[in-house]
């Protein structure tokens, strides 16, 4: 092995830069050259890339975003696209490619594989923590703290005004961010896919805990953390419907894209460093079509084809506890 | 003077607690008793209050929100309400009342004044910085830094994806927050009331700078900071209309209530301390129907009745510079 | 079981309040009364305590420090002290006591046990992460991020001036904080007990990587993270000795007590909530002389007597990687 | 005017990058070329420089440190050095030079002036706020918030342990940082040059407020903010001497270099932008040997030769208030 490529793909996540750095520094330790593609797989198709030396990754560990840029790339998911990607990898004499992204991005690697003679390895980088084969994805810990910081601020106002606030967090179709940030914020109620769907007809089951909290506990504020895609019409509609039911104004805040950016927290920088280093080491050891993940604090390989299976579950202990406290 | 009251009214602002603390500590230095009303003027009408001793304000200087709670209070703006407020002040033997809030809250003081024998003084506490008679209001500096932190995070994603983002900031009918945060964030374009209205018909004047930036400067991301109430239908509508014109997706983020909360920054804690102390000192000196503000770093009194005159202007130098750079 | 006590002991750690909250809310769900002792075991000996209801723990989840105060308590470690502690527990009719602290604090529980008829359970709360039987202690994640934030700032100056800085971090006799923060900060070198002792005679082995970095990599700044107690005379002496050897000024920064305080990060709030809840549940299930810890994301019980055995090791993968990169 | 130079000199300050950016963008608006010298005046003497185009300053507004590096430069303060500096300026056909730094750095400009045919202008960039002719220097607001964040954290521990802490802040020979951060932190006592010297013989005057606070106010923690160079032997010696007098352990924390770095806060980015832009505009207008400062929110010119006169005073109102409260 002499020369490897690396790219970041899909939604950006804090820690992607730390991961690129670890790939480059570890590759240098193994005397491997590194090429970085720009804009995810688009840079691969367009031959838009740069050489990455250790000095190019100095002091990027603390920055959000990705120096290689990221993007989604529809063109890759055609036969022609996959063949072309493999051709570019061959042309640039790359023995392997490291893909930093979510399980959607890993499907791109699976599409390229039949046409490519080299090795492909994934590193889980997404704030959503919805990748099978790793306890945590790079970016998740930072997203929690960003959400938390926002909810803490909203708590100040909710408390000053004795108001009900709904805070919508990201997570696509999983509740990792909502549950984690909700528990950490001391949110009075958490709505996420894993707790079952909520429709307008079932609004009443959300009301009881609110009324209970206000009457019995004398709570001066009430915060509901809501995972995106949890209610028909979205969180603004949910706030309106709850307001109508309760006869009290409920305000909605949609955190949106601030959850993707920012300086990565320590946990994400360490995870990114560990997995980036491990990915390169395992390429040297012959790994192919695997993801470098971490389970129980151990770096492990996991088949890339199984990373999207959705068998990973959010902490059942915290789910149960939250429901016990909320219904109490 | 033996006994004074204090309340926080209107939208909460970081530094209100620091101001309450300064009022209480300064009052103690003058041997004055202090009573704090809850929920703004509502606590005054409802006789919902607490004694405030120095130990009650220990270590609140660093907290957002307000320990006295805040609220709006329609009842005060009837004759009956104003009379009742004055009666409660008399009944509790309060020689003066300190109102921490915006110019809307100060109108409450003007309503009470004809019926009250004591002194009334205001302290400007609102994130909007839209109060005449003071260079800065308590909470404004923190709101800027909160907005900035969010925009910096959005910049990471905008940059990684080479996208156009619109970020809506608060400010009711003034552009202080939008201009300040926009300049500080290095936003490529700022839309605020002071720069003139924007309607669908005038969209094209927003497009030229975008196209210019992308073509001439090779900018990898483009952020427009938008003051609330700047476009018919709101910032989401503006993003949609711009997307249609440009043929590129423009994303909107509405920062919302996170701008109101959070630990106050140093500038707000210092301003709140100075104005809270000054308000009490000036009450002792006989001030009535005045606001304790700061102009050119000097604590000054300003007639409460003139605080809402809207003659205060956002920094013309920065306005001009921003337009020069954007159009360049 | 009807009534339990809780106290925080030893060095304070961010998340202790979140843990107290979880103990109180979970106890309420089991209809248990809760009493909180002040100043660690001192409050137990002095009968200085308060009732803790759910409303007392509202909105403390986000605050550093501990509402129950903490302290060390020599008096407990005499026979008379241990007997007295047990007597107070009996007198107050407490069926169990929850001790939130480090392994030193758990020895207090072991001292009380022979004299007490109730149950004793520990929850690991210390920034040092040096407690056997749990992957992480409450406060560790926040301490890493606090250290990181400081090192990132020092990096700015080190970079602007092209200087060598030594940053001393806490950790008593373990290198968890130094290694984790050092890796996360991209520190060029990390000195901690687990990497072997450094004496004046061995200074030269620290010099080679510095000279290597400057010559080969063109590094503009160089940061060494140093665990406390790593060098005879301390980190200031190390900086002086290195300066003499290198003929270049090396500056030392001692982070000190800022590492103990601050708003807990999400990971600490979640861990504190989980372990506080689990401790109460396990008391109800009959646990005694155990610590509620977390191993591999699972809440587990671990014998209190073994929590100080020092068999826990810092991540060998990261240790090896750091040395590989530094020596490269 | 066709071509100008810019450099950052002396201790780095957050906002220097924002200022460089404003210089470059404003110069572009006037069709001026810009050259940036590295390492302060050293880069001028060594002809170590780079061209600065708008794309070179993209997204640096939010970063601490300085992309041009900074340094002190003894060589400039010899006749030969000053002559050589002027020669390089002439050789590179620079019509003017912008110096971002403190009054020490401005003396360098005064040394060059007799030998140089072009214009010299300064912009005040230092965390110390000790430059005459401007209300605030670039970096001061950020340094306050950094210090505040650290003191808030120390408060958590001080409170948990009911301890006395001394926190030493920077400021060379002025008390701006100590007074501002101390007021904002609600420090119980502030020691800075402007409050008069403290010697071992006068220790007792520091004790009375401590004892007063503990006895009368039931304060659970006590924080003294100490400006550097305030006590013979330093703040660690002061802590030891106070401990001996009080019979209670007083801990010292030296914040050190973390005060210099970090992401600039909004106020510093705005000030840096305004003064950088103004400096270039005034060069175009013919300014020479002036500093671009801000007084009463207005950008103004001030003679460079008078910037070190030390007539600027810290806010007398806050000084008086702090002493009144502390002695109360």
UniProtKB/TrEMBL annotation, chains A, B, C, D:
InterPro entries for this protein: ATP_PFK, ATP_PFK_prok-type, Phosphofructokinase_CS, Phosphofructokinase_dom, PKF_sf
Domain Phosphofructokinase, residue spans: 3-282
Signal peptide positions (record): none
Places the protein is found: Cytoplasm
Top EC class of this enzyme: transferase
Any GO molecular function: 6-phosphofructokinase activity
Required cofactor names: Mg(2+)
Name assigned to this protein: 6-phosphofructokinase
Organism from which the protein derives: Rheinheimera muenzenbergensis
């Amino acid at each position: 092995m002499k020369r490897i490529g690396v790219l970041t793909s899909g939604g950006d996540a804090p820690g992607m830069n730390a991961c690129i750095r670890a790939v480059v520094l570890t590759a240098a330790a193994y005397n491997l050259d590194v090429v970085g593609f720009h804009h995810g797989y688009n840079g691969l198709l367009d031959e838009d890339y740069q050489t990455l030396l250790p000095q190019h990754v100095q002091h990027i560990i603390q920055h959000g975003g990705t120096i290689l840029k990221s993007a989604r790339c529809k063109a890759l998911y055609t036969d022609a696209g996959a063949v072309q990607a493999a051709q570019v990898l061959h042309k640039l004499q790359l023995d392997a490619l490291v893909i930093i992204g979510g399980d959607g991005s890993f499907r791109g690697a699976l599409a390229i594989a039949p046409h490519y003679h080299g090795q492909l390895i994934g590193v889980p980088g997404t704030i959503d923590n919805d990748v099978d084969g790793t306890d945590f994805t790079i970016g998740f810990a930072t997203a929690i703290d960003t959400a938390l910081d926002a909810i803490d601020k909203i708590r100040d106002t909710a408390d000053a005004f004795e108001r009900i606030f709904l805070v919508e967090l990201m997570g696509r179709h999983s509740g990792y961010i909502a549950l984690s940030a909700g528990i950490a914020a001391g949110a009075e109620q958490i709505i996420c896919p894993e707790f079952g769907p909520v429709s307008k007809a079932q609004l009443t089951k959300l009301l009881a805990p609110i009324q209970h909290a206000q009457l019995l506990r004398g709570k001066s504020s009430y915060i509901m953390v809501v995972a995106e895609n949890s209610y028909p019409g979205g969180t603004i509609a949910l706030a309106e419907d709850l307001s109508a039911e309760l006869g009290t104004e409920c305000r909605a805040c949609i955190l949106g894209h601030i959850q993707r950016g920012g300086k990565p927290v320590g946990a994400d920088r360490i995870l990114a460093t560990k997995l980036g280093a491990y990915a390169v080491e395992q390429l040297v050891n012959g790994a192919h079509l695997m993801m470098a993940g971490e389970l129980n604090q151990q770096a492990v390989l996991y088949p890339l084809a199984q990373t999207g299976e959705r068998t990973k579950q959010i902490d059942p202990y915290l789910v149960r506890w939250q429901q016990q406290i909320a219904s109490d």
